[in-house]
Design a protein that fits this description.
3 domains; D-Maltodextrin-Binding Protein, domain 2; DNA binding; WH_DNA-bd_sf; three-stranded antiparallel β-sheet; 11 helices; globular; LysR_subst-bd; WH-like_DNA-bd_sf; transcription regulation
């Protein structure tokens, strides 16, 4: 059987175009001329007999074939980095970086403390945390841009293994003394009478909220949207605005007493999970394995 191999330079140039969105942007990052990048992309497309990008006036948009190749290229990079780290360990220079992707809110609050506690026992391990919308975290794990993902999920994900999880309770968050605070629990229909502060439309939670509200024939019309939870929480401090989020995402604000919450009585909204994810088949670096064991056994738990 004929072996099929990609040139490492071509893959590196290709991934840089994917990341920057243009040939010129990739050339600037790589410190080469644009024609060199174009030649590498054209060579890959000729070899694969498929278009890797859709060319637009504002840049390059990766095709489905390009996405498949990008996933492969990132796996190659991740495997190479793991191999170098393991060889370094054999030579007594064991330094390994664990790449973690986490959802806004709970991951950004809880994970850095766990990193520091783990490094107290394993000082040679480094961590890189990228904070994203929940839906994008899984894609980072799938494409080998992250070893571990910590996120909110409402369904099984292709190529993703769930290492451990817990139910994600969705709550209505508001200022102390809010008119809705007299209720022990709330229904989604009660919120439409008050200003809403919600995640942006593309977020995983916002899509779930829009789907759930449509079942009750109500429209959630936010007075304020943001991709930053802190901005949403600050917006709630004056007036009668309400937001919806996983309880863990607001744990810092709730523990401090700056904000309060009430459970939302809806099975669909509360059907999701907070998950620690890895790729179902890609081997993890040794340091990532050890970190997963650590957060499973550490007290207090991660979530």
């Amino acid at each position: 059987m004929k072996r099929f191999q990609f040139d490492s330079t071509a893959l590196r140039y290709f991934l840089t175009v994917v990341d920057t969105g243009s040939v010129n942007g990739a050339a600037a990052r790589l410190n080469v001329v644009s024609s060199a990048v174009s030649r590498q992309i054209a060579g890959l497309e000729q070899r694969l007999q498929n278009q890797l990008f859709e060319r637009h006036p504002k840049g390059m948009r990766v095709t489905e074939v390009g996405r498949i190749l990008a996933d492969h290229a990132r796996r190659v990079e991740a495997d190479a980095a793991r191999t170098y780290a393991e060889i370094g360990g054999q030579n007594g220079r064991y330094t390994q970086t664990v790449k973690v992707a986490g959802a806004h809110g709970f991951a950004a609050q809880a994970l850095p403390r766990k990193f520091a506690a783990f490094q107290a026992e394993h000082p040679s391990v480094r961590f890189n945390l990228t904070v994203l919308d929940a839906g994008l975290v899984t894609e980072r794990v799938r494409s080998a841009q992250a070893d571990i993902g910590v996120t909110y999920s409402h369904a099984a994900e292709k190529d993703i293994a769930v290492i451990f999880s817990r139910p994600a309770e969705i709550v209505a968050v508001m200022r102390p003394g809010h008119p809705l605070s007299v209720h022990d629990a709330l229904h989604l229909t009660q919120l439409s009478a008050y200003p809403l502060a919600l995640p942006e439309g593309g977020s995983a939670l916002r899509r779930l909220l829009d789907m759930t509200s449509s079942l009750y024939n109500i429209t959630l019309s936010p007075a304020f949207t943001s991709n930053l939870p802190d901005a949403v929480f600050n917006y709630l401090l004056t007036g009668n605005a309400v937001t919806l989020c996983a309880r863990l995402s607001a744990s810092q604000e709730l523990d401090s007493g700056r904000l309060i919450c009430r459970p939302v009585d809806d099975a669909l909204l509360n059907g999701g999970q907070i998950q620690v994810q890895t790729h179902v088949s890609r081997p993890l670096p040794d340091a990532a394995h050890r970190f997963l064991r650590f957060i499973r056994s550490d007290t207090p738990p991660l979530f």
